[in-house]
Design a protein that fits this description.
- With 260 residues, the chain is an alpha/beta fold.
- The protein contains eleven helices and ten strands.
- It has a six-stranded mixed sheet with strand order 4-3-1-2-9-10, sandwiched between helices. Strands 6-5-7-8 form a four-stranded parallel sheet.
- Strand 9 and strand 10 form a beta hairpin.
- The model has no long low-confidence stretch (mean pLDDT 95).
Length: 260
């Protein structure tokens, strides 16, 4: 099956990266809306328009399923896309439930973009999990722009994260939920700053498990086969050697972050 992974930028590569490891027999399209990144600082109406345009393009590529590998786009637009299109559509969900299952009665810091933090979807999730006492929310929207510049562990990034995390007593917390796919690139910098007991959790595995179930795919984590991937920036196929090398650098960094 041809499966599309859609994101505002290169954050969704972290979901594709995991899919490449466990779904070697599928064909993938990765669509980064580089013309409009970042989504987290836009209005919900703007994001809905961007996602709708991307879906029109991806459906025309004859994809069998679409993974919205972007928490912001999921929050703003997935419901509308499911009403409009009949193919399987899988969105992202911050791994709050996983954090609370692993570490009951411990606080979890949920990081995401501003639009996700303000959105009804994450508030409804917290209420559904009865997690008001345990889940604290923090917008780290600037990490999206750092990631798009490939600035992962500079002094500027480190100082930004130190300042954002300074409000919390992490002895009370079990984990940090990475509620934006761009945030996976910063695990090493976060590890440097945060106490060693803090775990990093994201929704990538849960998203792909749901995709496998919904689209009736077969996982094979032992295979050494590499799936075929086509890359698009806002509907333009990526063919230049320079840009393909840039994407490969992101994937290599994700290999490193995968171990943290």
């Amino acid at each position: 099956m041809k499966v599309a992974f859609f994101d505002s930028g290169i954050g969704g590569l972290s979901v594709l990266h995991h899919a490449m490891k466990i779904l070697p027999n599928e064909e993938f399209i990765f669509y980064a809306d580089e013309d409009n990144v970042p989504y987290g600082t836009k209005t919900q109406e703007q994001v809905l328009g961007y996602v709708d345009s991307a879906f029109k393009f991806l459906v025309a590529q004859d994809v069998g399923a679409i993974v919205v590998a972007c928490n912001t786009a999921t929050s703003a637009a997935v419901r509308a896309m499911r009403e409009k299109y009949s193919l399987p559509i899988v969105g992202m969900e911050p791994a709050i439930k996983r954090a609370l299952d692993l570490f009951p009665a411990r606080k979890v810091l949920v990081t995401a973009t501003e639009i996700t933090i303000r959105g009804e979807k994450i508030q409804a999730l917290i209420d559904r999990l009865n997690a008001r006492e345990f889940a604290e929310l923090r917008a780290l929207s600037e990490l999206v722009e750092f990631a798009e510049r490939m600035e992962f562990n500079s002094a500027t990034v480190e100082n930004y994260l130190r300042e954002e995390f300074s409000a919390y007593d992490f002895s009370e917390f079990s984990s940090v939920v990475l509620g934006c796919t761009h945030f996976n690139y910063f695990k090493d910098t976060m590890r440097k700053i945060l106490p060693t007991h803090i775990k990093f959790l994201d929704g990538n595995a849960g998203t792909l498990n749901y995709l496998i179930k919904l689209a009736n795919l077969k996982a094979d984590a032992e295979s050494k086969k590499l799936p075929r991937v086509e890359y698009f920036y806002s509907g333009r196929k990526v063919t230049s050697t320079k840009e393909l090398a840039r994407l490969e650098k992101y994937l290599r960094r994700l290999d490193e972050m995968y171990l943290i």
